[in-house]
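haha ok so turns out i had the wrong file open the whole time. this is the CORRECT one, sorry everyone. sequence first:
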Amino acid sequence: MDYRELVNLGLSEKEAKVYLAALELGKSPVSPIAQKAQVNRATTYVIIEGLMQKGLMTVSEEEKIQCFAAESPDKLGLLFREREMAIARQREYLEKLLPQLRSLDNTSKDKPVVKYYSGRSGVIAMVESLLDDIKDTTVKMAFSVDAVENFFTPEESSRWRKKRLQKNITTKVIYTMKKGKLSEVEKSRDRKVPLEKYPIKSDIAIYGDKVRIASLGGRLMGIVIEDREIADTFRAILDLAWEGAEKYRE
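then structure:
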């Protein structure tokens, strides 16, 4: 019999080899068991001790020589009983720990959830997650068009625009731009503010209960804050900025 069959039941490799050797030999001193199991003699003593603790081997003395014997294979069911008892103890211990663990949980609903992204791939993943998370809603944004166009490729911007339209997401944008202004885009409203007066340096988006902020300059990094009160506060600030930007409309 392949010893690995017993490994699948929860015995270690050496335990399985020693048990099978003892089962085939019958009552025997340690040396024949070690030889048949191909396990070091000293190690075999240790393994046998462990198997006896599991109720799978016994020891007796024959003419002043210690002999060991494997218990009936029917006793292998003890392995499951032992594991069931261990799992029950662990479950009981977990129940005691849960209140303490919950008190440390940073994703608790009464605490903001903050996720950080770094590097170009991280910022792109953050943008992708926005489009994956929502549909049929309005995203309020503020950003520098020049920074966005320098950071994202035309292909990336085009792909996200198509996905936004497919998911019926509208945008309300406050932006700065060195020259010219944004061309009209479907399902998007925008207002330009003077770059020299309002040097917006981050890409900000508010949607649902999340605030997304990306730094697209020297430090490529992003942060998403998930908290209803914080999102509502940022949303109110952008609404105020939107009203103030009315005077700069051409």
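The two ends are 87 Å apart (CA to CA).
again sry for the mixup
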